[in-house]
């Protein structure tokens, strides 16, 4: 039982390049989330998917797109990377799409640097 | 709207001393509150959560937190700090009915001095 896995662990991009961050969970959770973590700003929600087939914008969606490929996988795409997107990206999942008390389970993160 | 405020971005305590990390929340509906811990180069993991069943919540690794509605607070405590407690701690709220959005605080980095 691997929990939430993310690939890659580290990535360096040049401005304007594109890439996709991959996330998968093996806990049969319905909801999945993408966050970015920046110093002094905590975690900010980029996009979330309450259930398979649905996605919604979070607090900071500009410059990103997501795909909920199936129940297990939720990918985050940067179409044209900018230095402001340098951050640590975390994927998370939770059991229920409606459970306000649900625990979120986090992946180990992807450290992205955009030059 | 919901929000959480963590007072003190950095806190230092001596090994064996009391740990107190502060969190105040704002919510227009009864909140559900969480404390997560992040060890270096890892993702976040749940320490404890308040779901309205009991105001004093016990978590893992000897941590506990008390929900105080009158003070809109959910401070995290541990009687005796251990070197392994050095990490970043995040308070979060999920207060809005019908949404799946958790609002995280900006985090408090705990340093434990030998």
Beta percentage of chain B is over 45%
**Helix-strand sequence of chain B:** EEEEEEEEEEE
Total count of strands of chain B: 11
Distance between the first and last residues' Cα of chain B:
41 Å
* Quaternary assembly: heterodimer
Q: What's the average pLDDT of chain B?
A: 91
Largest interface: A-B, 27 and 24 residues
Q: Give the helix/strand class of chain A.
A: mainly beta
How far the N terminus sits from the C terminus of chain A, by CA atoms, comes to: 36 Å
State Rg of chain B.
14 Å
The best one-word shape of chain A is globular
Share of β-strand residues of chain A: over 45%
What structural class do you assign from the helix and strand content of chain B? mainly beta
- Helix coverage percent of chain A: under 10%
List keywords for this structure.
heterodimer, A: 115 residues, mainly beta, 7-stranded mixed beta sheet, 4-stranded antiparallel beta sheet, B: 114 residues, 6-stranded mixed beta sheet, 5-stranded antiparallel beta sheet, 0% helix, globular
How would you explain this protein's 3D organization?
The complex is a heterodimer of chains A (115) and B (114). Chain A is mainly beta and 115 residues long. Chain A is built from no helices and eleven strands. In chain A, strands 2, 4, 5, 6, 9, 10 and 11 form a seven-stranded mixed beta sheet that branches. In chain A, a hairpin with a 5-residue loop joins β7 and β8. The mean pLDDT of chain A is 93. With 114 residues, chain B is an all-beta fold. In chain B, 0% of the residues lie in helices and 54% in strands. In chain B, strands 2, 4, 5, 9, 10 and 11 form a six-stranded mixed beta sheet that branches. In chain B, strands 1-3-8-7-6 form a five-stranded antiparallel beta sheet, with no helix packed on it. Chain B starts with a strand and ends with a strand. The mean pLDDT of chain B is 91. At the A-B interface, β4, β5, β9 and β10 of A face β4 and β5 of B.
